[in-house]
Amino acid sequence: MKIVIFGKKFERDQAPYLQQLFDELYRRGALVYVYKTYFELIRDYVQFDTPPGLFERSIDIPKLDFLFSIGGDGTLLDAIPYVHDIGVPVLGINLGRLGFLSSVSKNEMQKAIAQIYEGNYQLVQRALLCLEQPADIFGSLNFALNDLTLYRNTNASLVAVKVFINGVFLNTYWGDGLIIATPTGSTAYSMSVGGPILTPGSENFVIAPIASHNLTVRPIVIQDNSEIRLKIEGREDEYLLTMDSRQSLISKKQELIIKKCDFKINLVQMPDQNFFSTIREKLLWGVDKRN
């Protein structure tokens, strides 16, 4: 089995858990490839039975069976471009904090690997957003698993965003910005501004304003087969556009067209996990400190 290890950050107290991970993979005869930048961080703290293969770009990776993302949800989002549309299952191992996507804890790694080798897991497909226009901002990385966000670029004035759904005018949003979120992203930035939580297969997107200047404006849920068109108005000439962790300045003269991507990401889900148990655990639902 060919397994790719992707990570961005390393702290010394993570070394014992990483050693367990590599020991377990080598014990099972896995062919291991490691993101080169991450390998440089861990090479002095982890012993390898055999030198792993290294990669810097997705084209450097031979046909693989799994990608393991080591870190938090931000790391997993940065790993998505390396699997793009090839359908490779992604397992998130949480060495970060909250971890909605990186659902396997550092103490569960060996058990998770055993279940993968036994075929005792499920694949959960997650929809992505695609920025169809302008096509030159993010190039081939014009997709987002969590959200697309449009912000004001300075603190001087608000941004006004006109939103059209399938050519029909929805609203003009005045405020600090606007979030277009997938069901996966509904538990991220969108949730923090009051957006609803969507189940992964709900086939919807959320449009959520950031610090709306109109108190009657609230987040809205739309079908994910809709075309979303954004037209920017405001005093500034440029605004900040993000897709997950990627960002770029955009001119207010440019209109944005957003649709659902024509591919999905496969996330590995262990048999003792599900979406509802994850949000109960991560959001502490039902926890009462008085008891």
Please describe what this structure looks like.
The chain has 291 residues and is α+β, with helices and mostly antiparallel strands. It contains six helices and 20 strands. The protein has two domains: 2-126 and 264-282, Rossmann fold, CATH 3.40.50; 129-260, Probable inorganic polyphosphate/atp-NAD kinase, domain 2 (Tumour Suppressor Smad4), CATH 2.60.200.30. Strands 3-2-1-4-5-6 form a six-stranded parallel beta sheet, sandwiched between helices. A six-stranded antiparallel beta sheet has the order 9-8-19-16-11-12, with no helix packed on it. Strands 15-14-13-10-17-18 form a six-stranded antiparallel beta sheet, with no helix packed on it. β2 (31-35), α2 (36-42) and β3 (53-55) form a beta-alpha-beta unit.
Low-confidence stretches: none
Q: What's the CATH H-level homologous superfamily of the largest domain?
A: Probable inorganic polyphosphate/atp-NAD kinase, domain 1
- Largest β sheet strand count, sense and barrel closure: 6 strands, parallel
Looking at CATH, which topology of the largest domain would you report?
Rossmann fold
| Basic shape | globular
**Overall tally of structural domains:** 2
Number of strands: 20
Q: Structural class per helix/strand content? A: alpha+beta
